[in-house]
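Can't paste images in this forum, so I'm doing it all in text. The chain is below; anyone willing to post the predicted structure tokens underneath?
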Amino acid sequence: MKIYAQKSFLVFLTAIMMSSAHGQNPDFERLKATWSARFKAMSPQDWRAGYAAGMELAALPSSEGYEILRANWKPEVSAEARKQTFKGWVSENHPDVFKVLDLGMRDRSLDVQNWSITYLKDLAFIDFAEDFDAYPAWYKSHSQMSVKEVETEGILRALNAARTSNGAERNHNLRLLRSVDKLSFPGASPEILSATQFLFDTENLGQEGVAALTALIHLTQPSESFMKPKLESWLASPSSERRMLALQVISGSPSPYEFQPLMEFLEKSLKAKDKTTPMFQVGMAFGALEDLHAVPILIGAIDADNTYDTVYGLGYFGLTNLVGVSYDESHDGPWWKTWWAKNKNRFSAEIQNLPVPEFPHTASYKAPAEAMSSLEGKDPLSNLLASLKRNDAPGILRCCVSIAKEKDYNLVPDLIGLIESASSKTVTYDIGYLALQSLTAVEYRPDHDGNWWTAWWTRNRIRFPEDIRKRSIPAEPLITSLGQLRVRN
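Text version of the structure:
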């Protein structure tokens, strides 16, 4: 009789638990109804409502938040609100984070889908934008794993694959590791530390290897006694790859390094006849150090060159971060010197008494330019074509950023056609990085040329609305229009 009573109680308890799990608890049903009304009331323009909802739902006990979100994941709910809800689960490493992102992966909104793809890339180190069909099998085997388990497995998989592969396959695996410094759990496992060592010993890392090792250094945070001599050696190295590695490590390091070696490197770069080190990397390194002694030095460097490399590279990535002045293409050397004279009293007496150094003009120096003419076209594509024809780097930047900001997915086939037509490394970067990366969630790579993008469109156009996916990559009139392009290879 006692055994029967115990069994009856267990059956009763199990029934209650199952009833609650299936949303039949009256209190939970009322909570779902309340949230349903909240979701329906969200304005497409109010992204904050979606963000707040995600944070609140992720804080609910067990999987209640996910169940409520799943019940309200409907087309009539604002797409902006839907994608913003992801942040609550991702930021908290919630056990249901992969279930929530799966809602986005199955969403018909490309914008929502792209957000899921981007989050998964940073969590699992797999780029489903390149192979969308691989996602269902991955989700089936990983949906119940913890964030830490998925992240660790993904890093080790990519590291081991990179160590045992060559060429494009090696670069693909290294490229996946560029975001390891965004890991959501502190520190790194001994396995990751051990698996990283082969990159320190590799002579020619290549662009993807430099980016991967940089991110892994930021993740594993080797001791200063280990890193400092390496950084000084890399900055002084004749190898542009090693110099780039040093600048990237300094730019993203959680611990500041010394200012003087970087200052000496900048002076040496200005004197060089050919700019083998991108100035934006130098600007990022100075900005990361957050040392205000650099402000007049960067102004002097811009004034000595006055080209896009320094006006944008040192202005946007360095001075904007240090003094809070928004970048503008008109902010050349004379502009910054005038700004310093008027505003240096904002700083401490030590900083404001520093002179703006007079560096010799660089080999590529340009006198202060006249105001740029306005864009010729009336629509984004015409504007971009006009800027490309003029070889107008700031104009191309402005057009691509505008297209990305407006989320004009209709232009994806046209942008691919432009890359294919131009056959230019610079156009591939400008359009691929500044526009297509935002519209498709495909990270820029130097080998993403016209042929690569055309093949990508054939495989992935199914993601897009019917009116867009029916379109082919245009051969005319874009190729004709670009026939006279003076591109910067």
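The radius of gyration is 26 Å. Residues 2-21 form the longest helix (20 residues).
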